[in-house]
Fold this protein.
Amino acid sequence: MARVTVEDCVDKVPNRFELVLLAGQRSRDIANGSELQLDRDRDKNPVVALREIAEEKLDVDGLKDSLVRGLQRHVEQDEPEEEDMLEMAAAALLSEESEGTSGASRPEGEEDAGEAEGGEEPSAEEAKAAAEAMFEDVDASERED
């Protein structure tokens, strides 16, 4: 039974190594309680997995994604670029200025350029320049790139 099933599967997944990986993943999914896509007919999980692949009852791309997620040890997380960080800091400064909370974080008697000119809010360029100035204080060796 299994030999015929493998021969049928090679038409759907031409790489035999990939076929073994996908059938193994599907077999583990079945063992963990995943719903069967066709009747078991007293077959074991690997044979059922091969029959499901041969009859195209499964989304092979979804099965590949599941296999990759199962084998991953480290998931990389996208970190924002430095320019994006500056824009976010500038946006935070602008929102603090508009809410009037930025004065609470500064020592008494300090004013920024917008307050010294009569309470006007800083422009986006000024806020970005202020954010860049904040990041310039960080030593290059302390940055995590």
Notes: The chain is about 60% helix and 0% strand.
